Amino acid sequence: MSKPAAPRRVADNEALAVATQIRGSAQKLNLVAGLIRGKKASDAMNILAFSTKGMAVDARKVLASAIANAENNHNLDVDALVVAEASVGKSITMKRFATRGRGKSTRILKPFSRLRIVVREQEEA
Q1: H/E element holding 15?
Q2: 18-43 b/e with 16+ CB inside 10 Å = b?
Q3: Which of 1, 40, 94, 115 is deepest in the core (most CB within 10 A)?
Q4: 14 vs 69: CA distance, rounded Å
Q5: 3-state secondary structure of 105
Q6: What are the phi and psi torsion angles at 51 (to 5°)?
Q7: Is 47 left (phi over 0), alpha (psi -120 to 50) or beta?
Q8: What digits encode the pLDDT tens for the residues 22-57?
Q9: What is the CA radius of gyration of the chain?
Q10: Spatial distance between the Cα atoms of 93 and 56, rounded to a whole number of angstroms
């Protein structure tokens, strides 16, 4: 007696990849995610590879994982994949303290973000 399999969170022609703890603010990561929304997967990989934004490195890893999931787990055609969704949210925030003058201290916030990328197989029209 085992638990029933969890239902798929995405459609049959879609694949998903999630990164839950990317070091950096959600605002900066959303700028990078906006670059690839709606683009073909191969074009999006090139955009992220040559982007000057630091968060593009982590976003490229998540996109590569979504493409690999589509190919290996769901038998989708890699050449027909489109970035259907790239959503960003907040994750944890580490709190640290820095010493200041006259015996005072200041709180430093080190935010983490989460990135969810869904790729969809498009029919050639």
Answers
A1: strand 14-23
A2: ebeebebbbeebbebbebbeebbbee
A3: 115
A4: 9
A5: strand
A6: -75, 145
A7: alpha
A8: 999 999 999 999 999 999 999 999 999 999 999 999
A9: 18
A10: 20
